[in-house]
Design goal:
alpha/beta, Glutaredoxin, globular, disordered N terminus
Length: about 180
């Protein structure tokens, strides 16, 4: 036996077929944009230039951001990278976002892919977009940056640059800086 309420027709509040199709269409467009930004099958999230970097950082406002520049040919970069992976695992849930940017050339992408496969970072890694003016990119990151690697920039929750670390750092070095910014 059915009660009266279950038999009463309720107004349909679903978006309807055309609304669902628009939603599916938007989702597909967004997915295509993400796929287009990253090389097929790549562990890299895509290429970034100065403007793209600025937009990427803006999406993280409210979180502490550790931006690390590295390359596979840079031994100190390879040595410090596991500390970044560990830091991300330990502090991601506490308000830290780690972002890696490799400065490797296109010819070195197989080495980049291999390195990322071995390290298994839980954070996105990008490649500095080829072409353009390298000096413009460097100035956008930090006007005092001489291009040395590894190079790390820390941003506070307000989105402003808080600290610059040049050269290889240990987990303890990174943790000290990050803890200070997370308070």
């Amino acid at each position: 036996m059915h009660d009266q309420e279950s038999l009463t027709t309720k107004p349909d509040r679903s978006p309807g077929r055309s609304g669902r199709l628009r939603l599916v269409g938007r989702t597909l467009v967004l997915a295509a944009a993400v796929v287009a930004a990253a090389p097929s099958g790549s562990r890299l999230a895509g290429d970034l230039d100065a403007a793209g970097l600025e937009k990427r950082l803006a999406t993280e406002k409210g979180r502490v951001v550790l931006l690390n520049f590295w390359a596979t040919w840079c031994e100190p970069c390879r040595e410090e990278y596991p500390a970044l992976v560990r830091l991300d695992r330990e502090y991601r849930g506490k308000g830290l976002t780690v972002v890696g940017i490799t400065t490797d050339l296109a010819s070195q992408l197989p080495a980049v892919e291999k390195f990322l496969a071995e390290q298994k970072p839980g954070f996105p890694n990008y490649r500095k977009k080829p072409g353009g003016d390298d000096q413009d990119f460097i100035e956008a990151v930090d006007p005092k940056w001489g291009g040395e690697l590894p190079f790390t920039v820390l941003y506070g929750r307000d989105g402003r640059k808080a600290r610059v670390l040049s050269g290889k750092n240990s987990y303890a070095d990174f943790e000290k800086e990050v803890r200070g910014l997370l308070r």
